[in-house]
Amino acid sequence: MSPIDERGLRELMVESDDLQSDAMRTAERDLDDYVEAVLETHSGRTGSRDPGGMWPGWGKTGLVAGLAGAGTLLAAGPAAATTVDVQALQTAASLENLAVSTYKTALTLPFIGGADANAVVKAFAEKTMAQHTEHAEAFNGAVAKLGGKAQNDPNAKYAAVVQKAVPTIKGAGDVVALAISLEDVAAQTYAKNVSQVSTPELRQLFAGVAGVEAQHKAILLAVKALVDGGAPQLIALPPDAAKLPDAAGSVGFPDAYYPTDKASPVEEGAVK
Amino acid sequence: MSTDKRPEMQISERELAAMTRDLDELHESTFPGVRKLLDEFSANLAHLTRGRAAGRRGFLMGVGGVSALGLAACSSNDTGSSNKTTTAAPPATTAAATYEGDLKVVALAAALENLAVTAYTGALDAAGKGTLGTVPPAIGVFVQTAMKQHKDHAGAWNGVLSKAGKPTITDAPLSITADQVKALGAAKSVPDVAKLALDLENAAAQTYTFATANVTDAGGIMTAATIQPVEAMHAAILNFVLGQYPVPDAFIGVDKAVKPDALMPK
Fold first, then answer.
1. Overall average pLDDT of the A138-164 stretch
2. pLDDT at A13
3. Residue span of the signal peptide, if any (chain A) (predicted)?
4. Mutate which of B3, B22, B230, B240 to test chain A, going by most A C-beta atoms within 10 A?
5. Is the pLDDT of residue B199 over 70?
């Protein structure tokens, strides 16, 4: 396939859309299972499946903000645990909303979505934006089913970072670097959330999305290395592997264990 | 391994290699935190194997490890650190019945990592013999780097088994191993090997996703959560190399996960 064979690329994306739809259905099932598990637990304890009766303080996000960690959380009881679950989902949605808006803005730039853009980079930005939209919908869907408020705003902390960075963007490499940062924060946050949420279903959901954000980062790291190396022509599907620099084989996955030190606190993007 | 002619680039190979070294240092800096996490996981499992359920105390200990992981800031250049945890291990065996509960998932993970190492080692051997044709240098670097990370993972999981008083897993006693080895033997080109590796990486990523929901110890859950994205990243690069869309799914599922019942007696 030629590096600029957009039709071939679109066909690949259609194929992956089919795969993604299957995966999305699985994720929705996971969320439904999670919600059902929570409601059943609540029903068993109180005789009511109304989460509002158990968690009157949906808006009181400060309720558990001072909790030091999941251990304290567990000791605080199931209501606090579920509140944190909702906060984690809302924070996740805030990160996804920011990613969507950032890719949307990037696609208005000539070197990402315009005439000067590499076709593969443009298609990747479009598809990645769509995947982040699905993640946000999934996280907010779970929040809504639990009676919480959907998080429709971008993460305030990192929105400020993006806002500060945008005027300094001079080329595709700058955009890719910004995207790497956002994908990394999301992946680290969800990897850590796996240990913070209260049910197996929700752990699986956060892990399932963490891996995808990490994949976005891997590809962006490879793209950035080629852009910075003055070889954007090698960003193609398939790439001309024979011409790739040696280090391109490893630049996409720098850690044997995904770090979590940049993970957003659970309450960071919770709805106030 | 035969190689192609190299293109001229504005950034030199030396600079790119330096970038890789920086990334290696980054990787090494994350390992001490994971090792601490694994130590606590092992301690909890040791309690269980002695017939004393860890219960909430065990969970809280594991959570402490999770916090430690996030706070770890020290660095290490001890690339053999994962091996150190296995030096005092009991003799290796592959009897599936030896492992129960979380330990069965740990044993499964070790076996799966060993299978990946075996596959990449086989690919390097085949490349050395010229069986795969001309192998681009970047592909060789990918194989070596991914293989090293899988070795780290296997060493980590075996460290848990060893400290829990269980035999380590030094091979790949899985129901899928024979087919994978056969497929590797039939590979005649780089894409053939890349497809095989992609299947294994996808299976590993999904297995760890499964593990996050099916392991009970917080330290074990967190370890799986920090390895899963790495296997997923390997898969993304392999998809890219194969000319396939690199991030095909918005969610990583579990339908291709290797389940604990795939762990076989010898």
1. 93
2. 56
3. none
4. B240
5. yes
Nearest to A215 among B139, B236, B244 (CB): B236
CA distance B42 to chain A (A): 17
Tell whether A255 is covered by a domain: no
- CB atoms closer than 10 angstroms to residue A119: 17
Q: Which 3 state secondary structure label does DSSP give A65?
A: coil
pLDDT at A201: 87
Q: Is residue B251 part of a domain?
A: yes
Angle of the B218-241 helix axis to the B137-163 helix axis, nearest 10: 170
d(Cα B225, Cα B219) in Å, to the nearest integer? 10
Asked if pLDDT for residue A207 goes beyond 70, the answer is: yes
**A14: in domain:** yes
* Domain annotation covers residue B70: no
Tell me if residue B104 falls in helix, strand or coil.
Answer: helix
Task: Specify whether the CB–CB gap between A206 and B74 falls below 8 A.
Answer: no
In a domain, A201, yes or no: yes
**ipTM of the prediction:** 0.78
Q: The domain containing residue B167 runs over which residues?
A: 96-260
Beta carbons of B249 and A20 less than 8 Å apart: yes
Q: Do residue B228 and residue A248 have CB atoms under 8 angstroms apart?
A: no
Of B169, B35, B69, nearest in space to B113 by CA = B169
Mutate which of A233, A246, A262 to disrupt the B interface (most B C-beta within 10 Å)? A246
Distance CA A16, CA A112 (A): 21
In a domain, B146, yes or no: yes
- What DSSP element (H or E) covers B141? helix B137-163
Q: Taking residues B193-209, what's their average pLDDT?
A: 98
> How many structural domains comprise chain B?
1
Q: Which residues of B touch A203 (CB under 8 A)?
A: 212-213, 221, 225
